[in-house]
Amino acid sequence: MTERTLRGKTAIAGIGETPYYKHGQSPHDEFKLALIAVLEACKDAGVDPRDVDGFASYGGDRSEATRLAAALGIKELRFSNMHWGGGGGGVCAAVANASAAVHSGIADCVIAFRSLAQGQFRRYGRGAVAVAAMGEDAFGAPYGLMSPAQRFAMKITRFMTDHGIRHEALRAIAMASYHHAQTNPRAVMRGRPLDEAKYDASRWIVEPFHRLFDCCMENDCAAAVLVVPAGRAKDLGQRPAYVLGGAQGGHHRSAAPVHNAPLYASSHFTTVARNLYDMAKLGPKDMDVVQAYENFTGGVMMSLVEHGLVKPEEANEFMIPSNLYAPSGRMPLNTSGGNLAECYMHGLELVIEGVRQLRGTACNQVPGAKTVLVIGGPMVTPVSNLILGTEDTL
Amino acid sequence: MSTTTSRALPAGLPAPGEESMTKPYWDGTRKNRLIVQRCRGCGHWQWGPEWICHRCHAFDLAWEEVAPRGRIYSWERPHHPVHPALQGHPPYVIVLVELPHADNIRVIGNLLGDPLQEVKIGTAVEAVFEPHDEADRPYTLVQWRIAV
Ligand SMILES: [Zn+2]
Known about the structure:
The structure holds 2 protein chains of 2 kinds. Chain A is α+β, with helices and mostly antiparallel strands. Chain A has helices at 30-45, 65-71, 91-104, 148-163, 167-181, 196-201, 230-233, 270-280, 297-306, 315-318, 321-324, 338-342, 348-359; strands at residues 10-17, 21-22, 54-58, 79-83, 110-117, 132-133, 204-207, 210-211, 219-229, 241-249, 289-292, 371-375, 383-389. In chain B, the strands form 2 sheets. In chain B, strands 7-6-5-8-9 form a 5-stranded antiparallel β-sheet, covered by helices on one side. In chain B, strands 3-2-4 form a 3-stranded antiparallel β-sheet. In chain B, β6 (94-99) and β7 form a beta hairpin. Chain B starts with 14 loop residues before the first strand and ends with a strand. Classes of the chains: A alpha+beta, B mainly beta. The interface between A and B is large, with 45 and 40 residues. Zinc ion is lined by residues 39, 41-42, 44, 53, 55-56, 58 of chain B.
């Protein structure tokens, strides 16, 4: 029986982004942002947009595949896929789902995308202003537990307390994103550097581990990547970023309601990281660059630990800015500025940055980067991750 | 059983909505009792509420009273107001309370007392029932205080 894997079967052949706007400042409707990103990804790959035959997205994207296909005059739609779950947990899964469709022959040329105009629609950081809270919220909202920052804070409190990890470790994560954003012309926070003093003086969003700079921005933007069979990617215009592995899901009952997951103090990557490395036939030591979704820096910390990149008992020592800075840090992290400082593109900016690193065109290039680990939104369910590699890694 | 007439948080936050699955829980808190799911098939406690027992797949879930005490499993202190009712309100403490005598199920509430108090994981706490009698559909929240 042939091995069941995505390793080396597909590649990202094109990347596209709209300009990154502060929330509420996009001159365009959310759907128009999606159209721009799709066209940019096709242009980058040198593919006629009418030849796209599939769309994959996540996070409840409002730009439906069928509307995109009609608007763009797609010849034939063969794959449309929405990954369950809120936030950016599905970002890598959308790419893997597109890859699975391409590898299986369901489709040939699939866009994975996300469009998000939080000015046009409701922001995530606000609690819903409803008279009655339903479902799981009924056990949180009446107690003032309603925003994503509040929903995840107690996982982080427990994890950091159990392992004695200090807030300074999270500060290093924030500083890495801001540091990298300063040389990134796309970054919303370019020109607004962050140092220790500014971080330490920032206001609490939620004690004990969410200061202002531990929390992601909210933005208006869209981004897309084009996934094609590996063989075809070689014939297109860009250096292919091969999919070496993709995984998604969560450990046993990680979504148990009202904060009852048996393993609670977790980013939900314990099994998903294992499955990813198994498919890629690589381990944490093989990763040249790491792009880890920052909804909150505490989630990044847990996801790095659960991917075997940092031992919890070494976190205070290892998690210092110089170890996380490109080009020469021991673990270059979020090299374009990520959700904190480039743009809250629901993590798709991290996938795109991974592709740039492998092409050798990143603004904070890690010399000779051959592998990139991308970690999707930690602490939500389901989560997802991805390893991309150059042709050398096949 | 202790109750409180003062409120942990200002008026105007969402009230728990009425839903058939969770009705026994909210009916229980109105009587100052903490009532959660317990499987008639395998005898295990379960929370949050669900239609099925995740262990033995019985649909026959009973609602039973559990002693309203536990220990702090985790905590947070929100500062940033995410709801209009919290504008200008000082920080408050949310605790996740583990009930060791009920298969370690966890429940959420506010920790009463000084909102700036130091909070320690593992601290023993006991429930305080906080009635909202004036609501269109009266309800009672379950709050927590450090056990004496
Ligand atoms: Zn049972």
